[in-house]
Specification:
Strand content: 5-15%
Largest sheet: 6 strands, parallel
Number of domains: 1
Radius of gyration: 14 Å
Strand order of the largest sheet: 2-1-3-4-5-6
Helix content: 25-40%
CATH architecture: 3-Layer(aba) Sandwich
Shape: globular
Number of helices: 5
Low-confidence stretches: none
CATH topology: Rossmann fold
Oligomer: single chain
């Protein structure tokens, strides 16, 4: 079984977040620790992800949430390292005018085809990314697109702890 690298977003994933729960239940799953969760810097996050991938004994599966998805996409644009695939859950649109200033450094969002299998899971009522835009980015990345329906930003604030559908999607990538 491939290692699983969990790549949380801005401000990390708290103890009840689905990524944190997966860290406790998915064999070989571990969190990529970013240098600064509250003031993310793209180059630092990409470097931390690269270090985590390099430390794996075999190509891992990447599981990004929110800003972690964009860290993965930026990393993929410049890294020669191999991964088995990526589950990109509710990436944010950091190019919107209402984006938090602290997140703007993750723009512009790369549009190149990802060099590994990927799946973009998006919510129809995500406050940080319009569904049509998420679908368009998935197409640009060469990723399979999954419309999750109305589930907010797929975090604790939107009522999500466990995420069984996400586990099923992860199994598809395995």
């Amino acid at each position: 079984m491939s290692p699983i690298l969990l790549v949380p977003g801005y401000q990390n994933s708290g103890p009840g977040h689905w990524q944190s729960l997966w860290e406790g239940t998915q064999r070989d799953a571990r969190r990529v620790e970013m240098p600064n969760w509250d003031f993310p810097h793209r180059a630092d996050w990409v470097e931390a992800l690269d270090d985590a991938v390099a430390a794996c004994g075999e190509p891992p599966l990447l599981v990004g949430h929110s800003l972690g998805c964009l860290a993965i996409v930026h990393w993929a644009a410049g890294s020669p390292r191999e991964v088995r695939g990526a589950l990109l859950a509710v990436p944010p649109d950091v190019e919107r005018p209402d984006t938090l200033e602290v997140l703007r450094g993750f723009g512009p969002i790369p549009r190149a085809t990802l060099p590994f299998p990927a799946l973009v899971a998006a919510s129809s009522d995500d406050p940080f990314m319009a569904l049509d835009r998420a679908r368009w980015l998935a197409e640009a990345w060469g990723a399979r697109f999954v419309d999750l329906g109305p589930c907010g930003h797929l975090n604790q604030a939107s009522g999500h702890g466990e995420w069984p559908l996400g586990e099923a999607l992860l199994q598809e990538l395995m």
